[in-house]
Amino acid sequence: MAIFLTGATGYIGSYVASGILEEYPKARLGLLVRASSPAEAEKRLWKSMQMHLDFERFIDLVRSRCDIYLGDLTSPSLGLDDEAQKRLIKSTDSFLHIAASLNRKSSKACFNVNLRGTLSLVKLAQAAHADHGLRRFTDISTVAVAGHRKDEIVTEEGTIDWDRSDYDPYARTKKFCEHMVHELLPDVDIRVCRPSTVLGDSRFPETTQFDMVRAFVMLARMPVLPLRPEWRMDIVPANYVSRGIIAAHMRDKPKYSAYNLSSGAGSLTYREIVDGMEAAGIGMRHIFAPRLEGPFARTVDALMGTPRKWGASLPASLMKVFLPYLTNNTVFDNSRIVEELGDTPRPFTDYGFPLFRFASEGNFTYPYKPWPGAVSPRQVA
Ligand SMILES: NC(=O)c1ccc[n+]([C@@H]2O[C@H](COP(=O)([O-])OP(=O)(O)OC[C@H]3O[C@@H](n4cnc5c(N)ncnc54)[C@H](OP(=O)(O)O)[C@@H]3O)[C@@H](O)[C@H]2O)c1
Predict the structure, then answer these.
(1) Best substitution site from 18, 33, 34 to test ligand 1's pocket, by max atoms within 8 Å of Cβ?
(2) Nearest CA to ligand 1 atom 26
(3) Terminus-to-terminus CA distance in the chain, angstroms?
(4) Is residue 302 a part of any domain in this protein?
(5) What is the pLDDT of residues 76-128, one digit of tens each?
(6) Is 7 in the pocket of ligand 1 (CB under 6 A)?
(7) What are the tens digits of pLDDT across the range 330-361?
(8) At 64, which CATH number?
(9) Alpha-carbon gap, residue 322 to 216, rounded angstroms
């Protein structure tokens, strides 16, 4: 039997897929990949997983233990024909749903991928459960489902509050996904993982995801910060997040039904982050000016409308969507995942500076290795 996993071509999904393949030699994965052919799908998986596996290991693991399903969350039945659906239903004993649209500015993308996509996946999960019983359905959500907060430590139990407004369509649709999974799979063992702001890896400087890194580099380059020095920001490295997801999905009896994958009370203050950056020789001396939050937000709005070639509109757009999360001084209690994993995530100042250097010196790109010409990619999914 296999784990049907969505999002393997993405940042967190690549950690989780390669982590399960490495750590659980008996595990088999069914991977939903957006591609027009098995060859293209395999190339896309190589691109996402090469930060974790060398090519020989990748080919060995993916060819011996992964079934590829060419499909799309936004197509009816994920775009799978009858035969592929039947195969998926018969061979899947758990679902690990990581794929999502993180496009906070597009209600349409969030609605289609997160809501319609999750509904299609849940219908397949219902069919598999009716056929032979599912071991588990794990939904990768986000702490953003907690909605508007200010100066709080949020626990898993206190996260969903339907009377609260949400920051953006991403948070709103992810919140409803959690609800949908619980409502439509009442007899299935459901686990929910809610990462906070995932930034880099505490073991090495490389990343393939740059949006939040870009926003942080922008902040590091600003002499005046529209933040209070004592505010805390909940940042967690991707390697800790993926360990949490793998534990929640793979362990026989994880202790809790929902986990914040976060730094919680160990989250650093902006003062600690800035002092750490100065000590590492990154950024400049900063002045904290929380009263400038309003003017700063208006400047960001204005910069978003500038011509793309000036280079300010993209970082300004990113800042626009992340600003509410930077200024809410809210962290997410992580005692459950610390109990489950037995350790805490490394603080951002331990590993953030090599990450900044890698990102800014590489112009926010990862130096992807091409598919080796001598190896022909797979012809059959
Ligand atoms: N990164 C964070 O800071 C963070 C924080 C909290 C929670 N999360 C959650 O973690 C999960 C993974 O996030 P991430 O940062 O890894 O995002 P990501 O790098 O953008 O990856 C998103 C994944 O979803 C897939 N996907 C998107 N639209 C799809 C569609 N229509 N059909 C099939 N697959 C589709 C993407 O496939 P393609 O490669 O084909 O686009 C990709 O594999 C999400 O559920 C997100 O809500 C992330």
Answers:
(1) 34
(2) 99
(3) 17
(4) no
(5) 999 999 999 999 999 999 999 999 999 988 999 999 999 999 999 999 999 99
(6) yes
(7) 999 999 999 999 999 999 999 998 999 999 89
(8) 3.40.50.720
(9) 10
